[in-house]
Each structure stands twice: as structure tokens, then as C-alpha cells.
Amino acid sequence: MFGLMVRFTCKDEAAAAAFDALVARTGEQIRAHEPETVIYTVHRVDGRPLERIFYELYRDADAFAFHEAQDYVRAFLDERDRYLSTVEVDRLEFVSGKGVDHER
Fold first, then answer.
1. Per its UniProt record, what Pfam families does this chain match (predicted)?
2. pLDDT grade, residue 93 (50/70/90)?
3. N or C: which end of the chain has fewer CB within 10 A?
4. Rounded to an integer, what distance in angstroms lies between the CA atom of residue 29 and that of residue 49?
5. How many Cβ atoms are within 10 Å of 103's Cβ, its own excluded?
């Protein structure tokens, strides 16, 4: 498994709304075209209305590379910065868990 946790902070409320719309469009494409993307979730942070946390889990590094190469992901990466003040990325190494077949 290959995972990421990404924290985005939007510039303001209008930027947050536009970012959420971009995320929704991109997520539709990910669901439709990436069977090896196991989890791709986006969360608002309680009490911090400008923050979003993404949790991404891919079957393996090849699945992540496939994800990153998609036109809709490239478009997301190109557009997102106009809405954001900060981006923090943590690459995750799987240790253990429930609900994910980590043997694949």
C-alpha cells in the first residue's frame, strides 16, 4: 500500500468553496477511472473552515504513479494553488489497519 495525508489551507471562504468544487469534479474522475486507488477521501476540519484533509491510499506505488499521470489530476494540481495558502504532504507507510487488504 502507498498512502498520503495532505492538509490544504484555503485563502478565504470563497476560495474554499471553489476548491471544494474542484475537488468534487476531480473525485468523480478518480472514482470512475482508478480501480487501484483504494481510498481517496476529503474532509473538512471541525472548527477550521478553511482547512481540508485528504487521505489517499493506493494499491501500490504504480497505482499512485497512474493517478498522478491522469489529465484530470494534472488539471487539479495546476488549478488548486489559486485557492490555497498552504499545502502540507505526508507520505504514509502502512503498518496495520482494518478494512484494507494490504496483501495485494
1. ABM
2. confident
3. C
4. 25
5. 5
* Alpha helical stretches, state H, the chain: 13-33, 61-69, 71-80
Count of C-beta atoms within a 10 Å radius of residue 31? 11
CB 63 within 8 A of CB 1: no
Going from N- to C-terminal start, the domains of the chain cover 2-91
Instruction: Enter the pTM of the model.
Output: 0.90
pLDDT in tens, 2-53: 999 999 999 999 999 999 999 999 999 999 999 999 999 999 999 999 999 9
CATH class name, domain 2-91: alpha beta
Higher pLDDT, 61 or 102: 61
In the block, cell 481517496 appears at: 40
Task: Give me the residue label for grid cell 492538509.
Answer: 7
For the chain, the residue count is: 104
Classified as helix, coil or strand, 32 is helix
